[in-house]
Amino acid sequence: MDFVEIWIDGPIEVDRDDIEDALNEALAGAGEVSGAGSGTGGSNLDVDVFEGADRSNVLNRVFEVLNALGVGDSARVRPGDGDVWIRPSGWT
After folding, report:
1. Cβ atoms of residues 54 and 62 within 8 Å
2. According to the lineage, what is the superkingdom (predicted)?
């Protein structure tokens, strides 16, 4: 996993830019948001994970930010280029 993809496909009460800022702060030294976009299916954020970063810790931070901002299951997260998407309620 060298990146994390976040799709927001449900309603949220916070601006996507606020999520981006919070992720960059939470991931300082471990990763950063490298791209974002919006379309008819929702919006997305791309997070680059820095070499040597603890990937499990990066995912924990991502889900902590989503939960802290009340995004909940309006988002789904895909670690790396696999086919598995995880909703915040499914992260343990």
Report:
1. no
2. Bacteria
CA distances from 42 to 26, 31, 76, 87 (A): 23, 23, 11, 15
- 21: in domain: yes
Widest CA span of the chain, in angstroms?
A: 35
- Close Cβ partners of 90 (under 8 Å, ≥ 6 residues apart): none
pLDDT digits (tens, 9 = 90+) for 17-75: 999 999 999 999 999 999 999 988 899 999 999 999 999 999 999 999 999 999 999 99
Q: How far is CA 11 from CA 16, 32, 45, 63, 82, in A?
A: 11, 24, 15, 17, 25
Range of the domain at 10: 3-85
pTM (two decimals): 0.94
The reply to whether 40 falls in a domain is yes
